[in-house]
Amino acid sequence: MRAALRTSACDLFGVDYPIVQTGMGWVAGARLTSATSAAGGLGILASATMTLAELSAAIAEVKNRTDRPFGVNLRSDQGDVNDRIALLIRERVRVASFAQAPGERLVKTLKDAGVVVMPTVGARRHAEKVAEWGVDAVIAQGAEGGGHTGTVPTSLLLPAVCDAVDIPVLGAGGFCDGRGLVAARAWGAAGVAMGTRFLLSAESTVPDAVKQKYLEASVTDTVVTKAIDGHPQRVIRTAMVDHLEGVGRFSALGRSLANALRFRKLTGRSIADLAREGRAMKAAEGLTWAQVAMAANAPMLTKAALVDGRLDAGVLPTGQVVGEISSLPTAAEIIRGIMDEAERTLDLLGDGESK
């Protein structure tokens, strides 16, 4: 493998290739995570939609399937986050990733135990802040990314974040192939992190009919909406999304409260846990209580589609790159294909040829 493709991220994570499979809720379970890691990338378990016991079982299953390094994605505002961190430390999980800023205390606890800390950021200033806290790496996700996303495109965000911090940066948002990996390297990144590409893999447990809906989508079939949980989120435009955008605020709040109770039962949280997490979210993000209540919508509406197969009742988080994906290879085939194409792209650039 060329030196340009053996990056600081490979050394930091202990993997062969600078490719990360992100911790997608309801999707990134033990099967997909272990397949990615076994193939030489970094697989990340999604823990926010699991109980603590389920997370413990998932970690054990990944370790039973592969001896390669893997990660776990955490929510810093979960009521039992300290117990989850203790579990990661006890099980010697290599990487803890966060969709939100984890806070200095959590960063120190993890780093003191030898766990690599890697939050996702959507702005240069956020990268600078978490770098000050001592995180080991960041994922910079551009506006093309799926799920909760910002407004700055990857082509602008990624080089800005790479310039701002002196730690490995992984690019996310719009990546699915070897040319994208080479582009990310040219912008200064140490690799790429991908969700949609791995969601559409053989090991992904998303129902086949739902995967087919993704495969049929074009790059213009996605929309960024606040109707799901009050935050901008990129999903495939469906009748359900149109409905959510059309309902009134009172109806949306009622649905959100019901979903909050359903999510509590699924994840083993108590009412007190939900209240603590709500207060933490309200303080950290400056939300109203109505917005806090809406936060349960995203996981429950996502579960309806990605677990239960209910396209009529759920939403389909996705990056715009979905329009460039037309197959369901294994995780190993995805990684091998990306690395092979990256090598060919570097050969082409090195020869000074063009098409």
Order of helices and strands: HEHEHEHEHEHEEHEHEHHEEHHHHHH
Task: Assign the CATH architecture of the largest domain.
Answer: Alpha-Beta Barrel
Silhouette: globular
**Number of domain modules:** 2
Rg over CA atoms? 19 Å
Q: If strands are numbered along the chain, what order do they take across the biggest sheet?
A: 1-2-3-4-5-6-8-9
Give me the CATH fold name of the largest domain.
TIM Barrel
CATH class of the largest domain: Alpha Beta
Distance between the termini: 24 Å
Please explain how this structure is put together.
With 355 residues, the chain is α/β, with parallel strands linked by helices. The protein folds into two domains: 3-205 and 327-351, Aldolase class I (TIM Barrel, Alpha-Beta Barrel), CATH 3.20.20.70; 218-306, no CATH class. It has 16 helices and eleven strands. The chain has helices at 8-13, 30-38, 52-65, 81-90, 104-112, 124-133, 154-164, 178-186, 196-199, 208-216, 239-246, 249-267, 271-285, 289-294, 297-306, 331-351, and strands spanning 19-21, 42-46, 70-74, 95-98, 116-121, 138-141, 147-148, 169-172, 191-194, 222-225, 233-236. Helix 8 packs across helix 16. The longest helix has 21 residues, at 331-351. The protein starts with 7 loop residues before the first helix and ends with a helix.
